[in-house]
Amino acid sequence: MRIKIDRLKEIREEKGLKQIDVAKVLNITQVQYSRYETGLRLMPIDKLAKLAEFYNTSIDYLLYKTDERKPYASSVMH
Fold first, then answer.
1. CA separation for the pair 72, 78 (Å, rounded)
2. pLDDT value for 4
3. Hey, how many other C-beta atoms are within 10 angstroms of the C-beta on 52?
4. DSSP letter (8 states) at residue 4
5. 3-state class (DSSP) for residue 2
6. Average pLDDT for consecutive 10-residue bins of the chain (78 residues)?
7. Which CA distances in Å does 77 have to 12, 62, 73, 74?
8. Confidence at residue 76, expressed as pLDDT on a 0 to 100 scale
9. Which residue among 21, 34, 69, 70 is least packed, with the fewest CB closer than 10 Å?
């Protein structure tokens, strides 16, 4: 199953970051991150959650479930 997540590239470029910069945040290689960004590999939910936090947005925004960029309010169930 191939899922290309264009918003990963879009938001990364808006922040002026290279793939290697984001890969370091996720503690993975640039090649591995590139495979997530292009849809060759599915990104694990923990990595997606870390990116949403890093970019101060929601997983739903990254996955095109919403166009609202701001993150959701914190849950009391952390």
1. 13
2. 59
3. 19
4. -
5. coil
6. 73 96 98 92 93 93 82 60
7. 29, 22, 12, 9
8. 47
9. 70
C-alpha pair distances (Å), 16 with each of 6, 12, 20, 22, 28: 16, 6, 12, 11, 19
pLDDT at 22: 97
Distances from the Cα of 33 to the Cα of 9, 29, 42, 66, angstroms? 10, 6, 10, 23
Q: How far apart are CA 61 and CA 7, in angstroms?
A: 8
Q: In angstroms, rounded to a whole number, what is the distance separating the alpha carbons of residues 59 and 19?
A: 19
Domain 6-62 is classified in which CATH homologous superfamily?
lambda repressor-like DNA-binding domains (1.10.260.40)
